[in-house]
Prior knowledge:
Elements: H1 21-26, H2 45-55, H3 57-65
Helix pairs in contact: 2-3
Amino acid sequence: MVKQNEGKISVLKIDEVEPTTENIASGExxxxxxxxxxxxxxxxxxxxxxxxxLLSEKGLTVVEELGFIPPAK
Length: 73
């Protein structure tokens, strides 16, 4: 979310660990949370299309451009 709020918030080192993509993905940077998609029941067709898009190469690129760390491949 830092990229979306650049200039409005400051990044914070935790135990001298910078919040880099690598440190967040590895779990070394302790203040992070996953991006979750939750549905009440099994996703319907439209929801599944959206989920499949987000998990596609193109979708993961968009997710990353928004400042999120994509899941490990």
